[in-house]
Amino acid sequence: MNLLHRLFKVLCVVVATHGAVFVSAQELSVVKPRKAGDFVNSIGVNTHFGYYDTTYGKYEQILKPRLLELGVKHIRDGTYNQDVVRKYREVGQAGVRLLLITSSDRAVSQAKAIGDMLWGVEAVNEPDMRRYEGGWVKFACREQQNLYQAIKQDSELSHLPVVGLSLANIRRSPSELGDISQWMDYGGMHPYAAGEYPSKHWGWGMSMESALGEARKVSGDKPLLVTECGYHNRIAEKSHPGVSEQAAAIYHLHLFFIYFNQGVERSYKYELLDLKDDEKMSDKECHFGLVRSDGSVKPSFTAIKNLISLLDDEKKDFRCRDLEYAVESDAVIRTTLLQKSDGSWWLALMREVDVFDLKSGRDVEVEPIKVSVKFARKMDVCCYKPNHLVEPIAELESVRSVECMMDGCVQLLRIER
Questions:
Q1: Beta strands 333-339; 323-328: pairing state
Q2: Are 215 and 180 in contact (CB under 8 A)?
Q3: What is the pLDDT of residues 251-267, one digit of tens each?
Q4: Whole-prediction pTM value?
Q5: How far apart are the two ends of the chain, measured CA to CA in Å?
């Protein structure tokens, strides 16, 4: 066992109670898990394959190898030419699927050129930030309807999902646009957390509940996609605050679980690569990536890669089985219960705590607290901390409860009978 692995075993202690504490059924809850593969499928990332004058222009050196290494199955992009189509198809051979931002007059020809790796199409991005003759609302309604009809009326493409346009100003624009859900299969939204814990801020200072309510003014009861989200690392930014690379890595894992718990079908992190070298940190747009402009990976990349590696499960044809358990703590703990086709349950534990101080621009040292997880029967449990390791930090056999010492990082418990 290497030194780093031993260190995390000390810092992330898990104490087992081997049947010494009896937990009655009344103290526990029966929870129906969701499929682990569905959670992995909910993780996406934005790319710019055609931005040749940026880091994305280094396709063979950085873009393709880092994308495939990350393991994410879904990308969102709006660039198109024959060279880009070739590259889309190439990564598609590795299982990557594309959500293409396009226009109604070009959608059919572009979709047919891209082929099977295309997952769906999306209308114009953030039209409320642009000027159109007759106003953006009129343009957005017309473009969404025309895109939907163009795809659905083509026999080769009618199976493709059509995603509703996402708005920049989620506080004002949804009321101005109104319900256009009849022209979409999925709604879209951009709930940037602006440097805060992801459940606290869903754009324009709005709460999670308020932002979801605004998005549904446009998409009605259609399932939602978060087509852009995440954190950048320009700490000095005031209008849209950034966080450190370390804090972003912690928040990004919380973000995917929180959105998944809210019923969001997929969340596309913005974005895969830092656009350009910006050593002076003068432009936040150059620091949203999971990968730096020199091709080196940030802690967020490693965390998401580890998370996908641990939870990935290709098998779909199985039925999830309930798990009876309880989580006890003095802190606010969010949970997500998943199950793999091999029968193992995976319980994500998330402590709702700030790990970055926006006023001082510094990371917060979070004091670990005890979180107890109790089961109705003896279980074999492995504990993981994907922000740091893909290997387990503790392995326990035949236990009725575990006590996890949690800081701000997500912890995963693999639970087996």
A1: unpaired
A2: no
A3: 999 999 999 999 999 99
A4: 0.94
A5: 26
